[in-house]
Amino acid sequence: MYCSRFFVALVPMVALLVPSAFPADLGPSPIEPAQEVEPLVELGTGWYLRGDIGYSLNQSSGFARGGVQFANGKLANSWTGTLGGGYQLNSWFRTDITVDYRGDLRLSGRGHVSPAVCLGTFSGCDVFHNTKLSAATGLWNAYVDLGTWSGFTPYVGAGVGASVNRMTNVSNIFINDDTGLEYPGLSNVVGRHVTTQFAWALMAGAAVSVAPHTQVDFGYRFLDLGRFRSFAGIATPPFTTKSLQANEFRIGLRYMID
Q: How far is residue 125's CA from residue 66's CA, in Å, rounded to a whole number?
């Protein structure tokens, strides 16, 4: 009886001691390695916005309508405006996409047609052509920055894209060389016509920091816009230009989004 009471009293004590023995037998709990916290990605780093204005010296190597060449054509110069955005890959390379517009480039020229066209004349006719040109051009550009010298960062670059070229207010006046009067039946006004052409550009310039995240960009750009073409009617052949090229002197701002 005494022994049975002893064992009954001993069982709860053993039950309390046994669980505490297991951790000692297994050794200390392993320490889990601390999880690395990934740094937050700053979405603004490297991206920039840009805006430019420029003065464009425009030229084309030739104008024609049907078989009539306008060797002494005159093409007006124009102002241009550009908006775009890009990414600075590192201290040497950057790239951007730009859209620029030039409008109301007045084109005029004088050509000569034979008596076969101006029937009833001995000397033929002089034809005077007037029109307006405009273009919206989108380019993907890449640049190489050539280091910073006395605060200025020179660069060179190139771009490719497309130009939407529009010719409007096309008028042709035929003057009888014998009488000096307008030749009836040939003078006409043609509606507008839009063409999309391959465009490319070469650039060079320098940028200087004027405020935090802000640079002023002084640059030169040679831009080839492709051809312009008027509407072609049944009896009116289209007036076409060869590639229109622009020598542009530009100033702009670049703002880094940081």
A: 15
